[in-house]
Task: structure prediction
Amino acid sequence: MEQLANDLDLALEDYKLPGFIAVEGPIGVGKTTLAKRLASSFNYETLLEQAEQNPFLERFYEDPRSGALPTQLHFLFQRTKQIQELRQGDIFQQVRVADFLIDKDQLFAQVTLDDDELKLYQTVYQQLTIDAPKPDLVIYLQAPTEVLLERIQRRGIEIEQSIEARYLEQLNEAYTRFFYYYDDAPLLIVNATDIDLSSNEEDYQNLVSYMLNIKSGRHYYNPQASL
Result:
């Protein structure tokens, strides 16, 4: 294990790291865990969603129909504020990793809002996100719905326990559609079904070694579970 860590440290010295990394994926796939590990490995600042600060989220999970719009607008305002703070600094000098991509914010809105709510949301969105900076690398973590449900249940966050499989399936499909067309930044699509990026050092370091070679375009990483 120590040798793996030493090998990663040596590898980082040989590469020009992306200055702004965004990690994305549906609930339960492990994006925040990966973002924090990357920040630790690269000595980056983190830019995190802070879902626990959204006072409408628990209501949304219990009753999606009534809670969707305020939940979505709160996240939009929160993320926009974070992006504005990011732009106040020198993005070309400061290095960060985020567990969200502001461009995909409409993805959730399209899944959860009715037509009138969506029009209102899109009007607000268009006014707030014009100057959002582009990442130097986007990492999109994928996993089947049943894997997401199992991970959500295992991590035991109380307000998430009422999340339904149908909602996760819709979210998974929306992510797939979004990233099928995404080309605003280099993209690494990771099949996270059989790997443990939170506690398996080999799984994590194999992913980092792969991503260090990405400079442009779209890439697919489909690892097998390590023994």
